[in-house]
Design a protein that fits this description.
The chain is an alpha+beta fold and about 130 residues long. Helix content is about 25%, strand content about 35%. It is built from three helices and eight strands; from the N terminus they run αβαββββββαβ.
């Protein structure tokens, strides 16, 4: 299975039923992606919990003042069976620039705007709007 797709699906499902948090199995990549989403204001908090031998990643979902979700949609772009890479000029925009495309570059995770500004391409991870 694809752990990043599972993470994005847990976030999507949690937001759909107005949950406050989502708990996932821990991985370094998911933790880095969660910290990136927190830094961009799309998640409220990401923390690691140790439960015996296993670590878990606890994501606190973010809502606006009226109770609506900050994230309206998430789409996994590159998959394990079909990796999708793009140069800096060909990174797709989300909803005419309203959303964020997450790009894994040689300089770490970046938004589509940051990658274009730095003139680096990479693997298109997901799109969030």
């Amino acid at each position: 299975m694809d752990p990043i797709s599972d993470m994005l699906t847990s976030i999507r499902n949690g937001l759909a039923v107005k949950k406050q948090e989502a708990v996932l199995p821990y991985s370094n990549y998911k933790h880095n992606l969660a910290k990136f989403l927190v830094s961009k204001g799309l998640l409220a908090k990401a923390e690691v919990m140790e439960d015996g031998k296993f670590k878990q990643l606890k994501l606190k979902l973010k809502y606006d003042d009226s109770g609506g979700a900050i994230i309206n949609g998430i789409k996994r772009y590159s998959k394990p069976g079909q990796r999708i890479y793009a140069r800096s000029g060909r990174i797709p925009k989300v909803r005419y620039g309203i959303g964020v495309t997450v790009v894994s570059t040689s300089r770490g995770l970046m938004t589509d705007q940051e990658a274009r500004r730095a003139n680096v391409g990479g693997e298109i991870i997901c799109q969030i709007w």
